[in-house]
Amino acid sequence: MTIKSAVLGMALPVLAWAQSVEVRADRESHVYACGEPATFVVRVTGADRQPVTSGQLSVTLTNFGTQQVAHAVFDLAKANPVTCAGTLREPGFLKCTAVATLGKEIKGLSGAAYEPEKIAAGSARPADFDAFWDAAIARLEAEVPLDPRVERFEKHCTDKHDAFKVSFATFDGLRVYGFLSVPKGQGPFPVEVNVPGAGPGVIGPNVGIADRGFIHLVMNVHPFEPAADAAGQKNRYAEQDRQVQERFGVKRYCQAGAAQRETYFYYRIMLGINRAVNWVVARPDADKTHVGYTGSSQGGGFGFYLLGLNRTFTKGVIHVPAITDLLGFQKGRDSGWPKLIENMRPSDKAAALKVAPYFDGAHFAPRITCPVRVSVGFIDETCPPAAVYAGYNALRVADKQIGHGIGMPHRVFPEFYERFDQKWLRQR
User: DSSP states of 196-263 as a string?
Assistant: First the structure.
């Protein structure tokens, strides 16, 4: 059964220089049937929170992609607030972008969902998808010893918990790195796994979760050992991107090697982290009946990956997931981060079109067997809402729920962490 959460974030003023552009739809839920008009009300205010009486306002409605639905330019001396209406004829999201020119440009956003429960991924699920990933898992186990390396991380140990640096072997001589936190005591303790969002990654354990009685494993996606401090980690991260730019002609690690399935950056990483999950759950002090996952953005995308690859999970929270609907552009809408095909060098695009579906979170979703919670931002321009819904709709589990962040850009409202992580995932 699909259960919708309460609507959160009814309007998001975008503030700059004490002026703001506020945009909201004419329906509280911001959800419409295809063909129904959505009317957006745009209000431009000054430092006193009163409507400004000069300047220009441009309002554009799109399908969160290449299709322009409506466009209008207003003289704020004549009208403020103003309205702009449009609709979609097929499932998707309508984005309202309002830009006020008041000496400087100030932007406001809003979004409306059109039958989002019918949104499907921009690519077909490969016929050999399951066979490919099952064979990859089996081959890694057969060919590469796990070689777990566990080092006590003394500066993070207390009388309440122990902390460790951990790493595990994966294909091509690479390793995946992370941190383990374990409560003091006999257990068994519930387990929580996390993969960070895109960027340099973490340099230490999440001991706060351990102090709440959980074994916590956080795994970076980077195949380099975490540095001792943030500056060092940033330098290692920058060097990695320099290397992938030189070798693959792309800007970031998350786009590297996509001309072949086995060379795409995430391939070896996902498989390595999957076996790290098996290792931590196999601990004698781990409660195998309570194994949860939570992650946002890149970590949300890895939620689809790991929950789909690994049957040990009993619950999963996927916040604003990246790496889903990678071929959304084929349906005229924005693809999910990292816009893989769009960022390939021309010589690799044809091959990457065939590879990308094997790494699309929406195609891992049917493999997931545990209850899942998902959050989506209606004005998320990094992980577009249609991309999130493409993954959510592909889930076949009965116990799933999606939370609508009406005014939520690429972040997660605290309400979702409270509801999905604190009150659901960690419930025993």
Answer: PPSSS--SS--HHHHTTT-EEEEE-SSSSPPPSSHHHHHHHHHHHHHHHHHHHS-SSGGGTTTTSTTT
Q: Quote the crossing angle between the two packed helices 265-281 and 298-309, to the nearest 10°.
A: 60
Predicted confidence at residue 2, as pLDDT, reads: 38
Instruction: Give mean pLDDT, residues 273-284.
Output: 98
> Are 147 and 95 contained in the same domain?
no
Q: Are 288 and 422 in contact (CB under 8 A)?
A: no
Query: What pLDDT digit, counting tens, does each position of 110-141 carry?
Result: 999 999 999 999 999 999 999 999 999 999 99
User: Where residue 286 sits, what CATH number does that domain have?
Assistant: 3.40.50.1820
CATH number at residue 34: 2.60.40.1930
Task: Examine the fold and report which residue of 92, 118, 144 is the final residue of a domain before the chain moves on.
Answer: 118
Q: Looking at the structure, tell me whether residues 297 and 375 fall in a common domain.
A: yes
Map tokens 């440009």 to a residue: 105
Question: Residues 96, 176: one domain?
Answer: no
Residue 327 CA, chain-centre distance (Å), reads 16
12 confidence band (pLDDT: 50, 70, 90): very low
Mean pLDDT for the chain?
A: 95
| CB-based contacts of 28, cutoff 8 Å, min separation 6 | 7, 10
Q: Both 232 and 361 in a single domain?
A: yes
Q: Report how many domains make up the chain.
A: 2
Contact 409, 297 (CB under 8 A): no
Contact by Cβ (8 Å): 20, 108: yes
- Nearest Cα neighbor of 126 from 326, 423, 342 is 326
Q: For residue 352, is pLDDT > 80?
A: yes
For residue range 141-199, list pLDDT tens digits in order: 999 999 999 999 999 999 999 999 999 999 999 999 999 999 999 889 999 999 999 99
